[in-house]
Amino acid sequence: MLTPEHNDIVPSAEIEMRGVEYRVARDRVLLSKLALAVRQGETLMLLGRSGSGKTTCLKLINRLLEPTSGEVRVQGKSSANWDPIQLRRHIGYAIQDVGLFPHYTVWKNVALVPTLERWERKQVEERVEQVLQLVGLPVREFGQRYPNQLSGGQRQRVGLARALAADPPILLMDEPFGALDPLTRADIQREFQQLQHKMHKTVVFVTHDVGEALLLGDRIALLDSGKLRSLETRESFLRSQDEVAREYIAVYQAGRLENSSS
Amino acid sequence: MNFLLTHKREVATLAGEHLWLVAASMAIATAIGLPLGIVLTRKPRLKTLVFGSTNVIQTIPSLALFGLLLPLPWLGVRVERLAVTALALYALLPIVRNTYIGIAGISEPVREAAVAMGLTSSQLLWHVELPLASPVILGGIRTATVITIGVATIAAAIGAGGLGEFIFRGIAMVDNNVILAGAIPAAVMALAADLLLGGVEKLLARRQH
Known about the structure:
- The structure holds 2 protein chains of 2 kinds.
- Chain A is α/β, with parallel strands linked by helices.
- Helix content of chain A is 42%, strand content 26%.
- In chain A, β9 and β10 form a beta hairpin.
- Chain A starts with a helix and ends with a helix.
- Chain B has one domain: MetI-like fold (Orthogonal Bundle).
- Chain B is elongated, with a radius of gyration of 20 Å.
- By secondary structure, chain B is mostly helical.
- Chain B contains 10 helices and no strands.
């Protein structure tokens, strides 16, 4: 695997959107003229309100949706030229509702993609144990449980383990921690941060929570009504003069003030 | 009751015929209905056509359906053939409908996750859709089986055998005992099938919420 240092020599965009537009009807534009690049190994946060086009943007990357016009490039290759199955196997996907298979044990949920990719049985076993350990769920204790025997936080962890199972270079996450209680959420955010520190996956992470964006993101892309307002590093985002960005920062600072005074 | 006991052997023969009619027609109906239901989930445009025509079949009175098929060249030659075809046509709707509903009813996040993981259409079917829809699909087969056991009594009207023989004979003889000798075993058969398949359905649904 390439290390991020390698990348500085050859600045390669792992994911690139070029003038991407997505319309559902002639006049309903969900995304317009979107251009952005995600660098290898970085965590890019897509921040915005509901309906701002964050999720649409994410789904264009793994071809759950096809752009109306423009081009999405993944690893230097236009997504239209990727075989969608191959493309998706390269990309881990974690969503708020997790979507674990209720009829499969935790073990089988995590093992599915490596198995479909025809890994050796032994390799699959090792990998499942490894990724479950990574998300804090020892396989001995949790492997044979069914999703309905897990808490919300545990399910989300399994979802993350499943997304990581086949070791994809890219990870797409759609408000994965959005439905968790605040404490579990803080735990899992911290764990994810540590995890990403080790993994250096290319992550595109959708959130409406500015605090989460600032905590986890290397860079923050602010979307508003289907348009990219700004794309900045964490530090420069805080100093941003963009009107909408200022609103988010105000909310963020108000929240911090409240927390520190209580 | 007495008649039933004294004619044990004949009851057994006719019950055997009855069972065979039901089993053969259910096998055919499932072999056609299940794939058809799956096709509808992939090509929803065909829904109107398929549900429309299976619905129409369902509304034809069973006796009339037997009669309608009688003049057909290959079918009309052998009454068993005809009876099995008619029964299979009747059983089609619940199976197609439940297969479609079962698969279409799978929760959106589960389907989305499966597609996003890179499952092909057939992997999606075998790993996710069929297992999760299986209780609903089996529910359709159960409904169809119970209906078929009932309708199969009418097969006797065209001479295809089964427990209906007793019923028609009893009506002709104005003898309730003879009617009951056909009706009771048929009812028991229907209840048993319902119970048995209901049990399997519960078993399949155990791990799902």
